[in-house]
Design goal:
Bound molecules: adenosine monophosphate
Helix content: 40-55%
Number of domains: 2
Radius of gyration: 24 Å
CATH architecture of the largest domain: 3-Layer(aba) Sandwich
CATH topology of the largest domain: Rossmann fold
Strand content: 5-15%
Largest sheet: 7 strands, parallel
Amino acid sequence: MTEFAGLELAQPLLRAISDEGYTTPTPIQAKSIPPLLNGRDLLGVAQTGTGKTAAFTLPLLQHLTNDGSKLQDRKPRALILAPTRELAGQIADSVRTYSRHMGLRSTVVFGGVSARPQIKAMAKGVHVLVATPGRLLDLMNQGHIRLDAVEVYILDEADRMLDMGFIRDVKKITAAVPKRRQTALFSATMPKSVQGLADGLLEDPVRVEVAPTATTAEKVEQRVLFVAKDKKRALLGELMSDEDISKVLIFTRTKHGANRVAKHLDQIGVEADAIHGNKSQGARERALKGFRAGRIRALVATDIAARGIDVEGVTHVINFDLPNEPESYVHRIGRTARAGAGGIAISFCDHEERAYLADIEKTIRQSVPVQEDHPYHLAQIVSHIGAGPGADKRPSKARRRPNRRRPQRSTARAA
Ligand code: AMP
């Protein structure tokens, strides 16, 4: 995994990042920061909670330090547009946090509060302006803000911006920003309307996309069970005696593994079927239909076969094998938290998989609570877990603490 130190960020930014306690860039940061530092335009498909704010703020601040041009009254050098006051306020907090060792000035303007302090701040001149569209246009119309010195232009949560009816305002604001500039647009979803807006704004953009990590993971109750590889089937049988596990999607790494697990479940009296690439289209459809209708209690799948499957009311996801890609983990457990409903994700972790678990925990920025009260608990994994790559800085005691997320504003933002 990339470290921040490998991203060619300036020292004052690295210091601010380290003050915050971040060691590893999140996926959206690792993918967005290099092209943005190279001056490219960017289209980012990412939700709140993925670390997208730092993904666009850090390169923007670096750009401002590299460029010696003077600060002018009323003329920000970077503009970040956000749809709501809350989001604008949070972005402004982040800008302040990451620029604290740089001596840059920033401010935020939004409606619903007195414009006077905002006008005063603009009169002194700021490097970075964070704004909601309505108030920004008002202040522009009154001559308090001019956008002709903007070099970096960011639109955050573009989909929400359009949903809230800001399209005309955004167009007017964009028309006031110089054509020669760097632009990035972030959106959680990419409907045609947002794509259309992006097409008009961005020049030859790099497109980056990440799974909705933290927000998905938050809704799902997760636990991990340490178990020896050859005891996984017995453990699964044990779990299936719980009738609450009524509609369960089970993931295995291989097609053979999926077959073996489905067969074992059949043998112990659990209605099960497997879907994977070696099965005919007809067989896959039959299995899915049975699962949807509730005739099949357990559907065993590989990641590829499960892609695009959307079944309502999945009560549990069981990771019989842990995936080696943390993003697959997030996709898998997301199957049980559809439409805002919570679900339960249970992961088996054997000795060889503990490094995967460490990577997953880094990505979702939570430690997954360990469930020990089962007959196959493998205590020695707990004491070995610090040995996995990426687990080096985490004390093993912390692993039993649920939701060890980075605190701050993240929960408020996910709401
Ligand atoms: P965002 O998606 O920008 O709203 O960020 C979500 C949360 O993740 C914020 O509370 C950030 O402080 C935090 N965060 C951002 N980047 C990192 C990182 N690299 N490591 C740990 N936490 C981070």
